[in-house]
Design goal:
21% helix, Rossmann fold, homotetramer, globular, alpha/beta, 6 helices, two-stranded antiparallel sheet
């Protein structure tokens, strides 16, 4: 039985998640034989961690956006200590700037960003042998997502499992694995609150895989096998359109 | 004085390089006080390495495409041995499938690919503290390039210095650093023979940096400093156009 | 069910292993519900891999010593290809110089060595979060072992799980984990044929853990938790004796 | 010109360093054409960093022992921020438990220890291609040193340049390199205040190399070349004596 705690700085119910983002994430862990899920909010008692909730958490999911500074230093330190003792932690999207993530990393964790209509993301697998990549479609598309761009100021990850492509030209190390002490940490970039990202099937599978890996319950199984051939991908996933050709001719 | 040997399987003089690709690459190392450049071809005596040329080479540049199997096993083994002794090696573009690179890696080195009209590449820096990234413009554009896509079956690099973005939707770990024994190895993805890639200023700087790093003559200097801010990139480098918006509306 | 193949260049039955080393190693995998064990010798048909044995092997154990060159290049290449497809491989002791290990590494894999009466080894855990370290006593002693010393010319391992201490003054990276393609590789230094190393309880546990990890069946479970204290180890594991004190006084 | 600041929590002048440890370390950087050295103490104004000293420091050496908690959180944070901006930092011996080192690492940094008469240390090079290892004698001996033992609870270093051997049976990752943001960090274990460690020639060379590497002024030059042979080290560096043999016979 894996105890999951899903924390969010806000219980906002918007168009993307009428039920609230916490509930949307919690619905990934419906298998009551395997998972026990708690949802917590910054506005709750003890900022979401009353009693021994933190001590009993096996994997913590953290989503924060504009209220990072409101999290007490003391709570952040308790979370980091729990990670070192073995609690898994999955930091989602704007949580790159959260206190616990920055403390565990030791770097600024800054990046560039943009929210543009019509911008999509494609997620590519850059380590298919990592358990978090299991069963994921290489290059799957998110029709709308906020762009996060490099340079993402983190220490070199142990693994860059996913790399993202954005319509507007940027790339990003979208899925990064780290270890601090006994704890396994996964940073996963998708998850802008305006889009129902956490309903996407591949995204939901990645979240599930990440929980199992962070809880050290994943068995390391993967399905990808390299066959040594170099497939010719004749049709591009994204359109390469006439306007591009016009732009090239102009530049000559 | 750094002795550079630039090897190509062919001396073909085409539209992109009327002088031949070897000469185009050699022109990057014009500083005669620092560099001594030899050009070699598969069709030359001893497949390009007569006498003691290989023993005197400090950094070897290798470009091959369709004649990997014509390189003798013996020459490939001599090259790998020289790398282990300390010779630097920079493998360009389709050299991912060359005998020496595959021997040094121990993996298949396969990838996916496409050559499509109108497809461009943008090169992003995913390790700005690496000497090969020094002085390079983050996200610089190559108006035309052949797509290489993941999963690129190499061992985990020591550093992924550059990550590429392709118009058609793919990403690629375009600049990867490895060490084998005393030798430093850099794989650099751009360089399709139909486009004058090696005339691009950023590309030429990367090639120069790579030679200095592989020769252990780079001093480790870098210019990037993280300032902890998250810049909002309002205007996307690549256009996000009406057809994208149309596509999204259709999917709903 | 995990299919294990244990290969040895010799079926010699000596004082350390009257039953032969293969049988001693095979006895670690007695759980017939989990493991299916085949033993193979260099002198067997097809050098130990007739029919589809290699294709059905999930984890290959390899011990070789003086007959590395007798293994055919073709068999070595087949083994490397199987590793890239996902077969786990555990290379024991003098197998550091075997053809398949050297091909997968791409380096010379050389080291220094000595066989001296009275020399023991202590094995310390330098990554207690690695599944291969699970349940192992930190600093356990092997009363007799052949010294292997640094510099061990391998690429930087993904993990150095164990580091060895030898009475005569040397250290060695005794347990190293690598990945090539889908395959997991573990190099484990103990195993000189003159001493019954593979009867030691900690060694047997490591071998079992390594098989599970290489077969991707380990679940990533570990038991070590760092508690942040710095224990004062008053009594040294190995004696620090009067002759040492005498030696120091002389040097002044 | 490299600006070095050497910080110590105490200006104590003892038997090992009658001039004080700071002065002993400063004497390594006597080349006034290359280095500008400042010494600082916890007891000085602003805990050693008045005015713009910290902003002008290129490499900070830090030795602390029992007064880690007296260093203000604010100073520790300024130091970490400077490291991320590019200041090099070398943490010596008991500084493993200093506030800045622990913040940059994100782990407890705990270890085991012992101070025993007659215990010596030997330092082995486990990455001879690292600039900090340049010109160092492999396996050099420190006649007296305090034992530090594994498990040293740090994140996986980018490089473990040195591994130590202690008479009493332990090993330790004695020279570890990390990067945080633009800053290079080196942890170096030797340096117990009771022994004149910093007068040892190899130690002084390592300190000098570490300063150049951390300041990104090292050029990456190394001198070790692997030749692929496995030298037989007949005479052990440390004695293997009769009492060992007696102990083995008893155990049978």
């Amino acid at each position: 039985m894996i105890n999951i705690t899903i924390w969010n700085e806000s219980g906002h119910k918007g168009r993307a998640y009428p039920e609230g983002m916490n509930a949307a994430l919690a619905s990934i862990f419906q298998d009551k034989a395997r998972f026990n899920v708690d949802c917590a909010l910054l506005g709750d008692e003890a900022q979401g961690f009353p009693g021994e909730r933190l001590e009993h958490t096996d994997v913590l999911f953290w989503w924060g956006h504009s209220k990072h500074e409101k999290v007490s230093d003391e709570l952040s330190e308790r979370i980091c200590a729990r990670v070192r003792e073995g609690m898994g932690a999955v930091f989602l999207h704007s949580a790159h700037f959260s206190k616990p993530f920055r403390s565990l990393m030791g770097t600024t964790c800054s990046l560039s960003w943009r929210e543009a209509p019509g911008e999509c993301e494609r997620i590519w697998i850059t380590n298919p042998y990592h358990p978090v990549a299991r069963g994921i479609t290489n290059g799957f598309r998110l029709d709308r997502e906020e762009m996060y761009g490099e340079y993402f100021d983190i220490p070199k990850p142990d693994d860059v499992v996913f790399t993202g492509w954005f319509t507007g030209g940027e790339v990003f190390r979208s899925g990064c694995a780290f270890e601090r002490g006994k704890g396994r940490i996964f940073y996963f970039q998708p998850g802008h609150e305006s889009f129902p990202i956490y309903r996407d099937e591949n995204i939901r599978s990645i979240i599930l895989n990440a929980a199992l890996w962070a809880a050290r319950a994943d068995e390391g199984l993967v399905d990808f096998v390299p066959d040594g051939s170099c497939p010719h991908v004749r049709v591009s996933p994204e359109p390469i359109r006439a306007w591009s050709l016009r732009r090239i001719r102009l530049k000559k």
